[in-house]
Amino acid sequence: MEISNLVKINHYIVAGTDVYAYTKVRNSFLDGHRPANTLVLVPALAGAGVLLELEAVAAKL
Fold first, then answer.
1. Which of 32, 41, 43, 52 has the fewest CB atoms within 10 Å of its CB?
2. pLDDT confidence of residue 48
3. Contact 37, 12 (CB under 8 A)
4. pTM, entire model
């Protein structure tokens, strides 16, 4: 599948200070494609050594 097949992305980020930089990088990968998305700040992920977690749904008809 390709980026154009993405229909939904859930983003879980540790720090609010990373949202701007993360969004800029994400948009460069999506190259204009605009799937539905949810971004949630989850500071507790840092305890597991995680800075970012993604969940993506894609569909191909």
1. 32
2. 86
3. no
4. 0.82
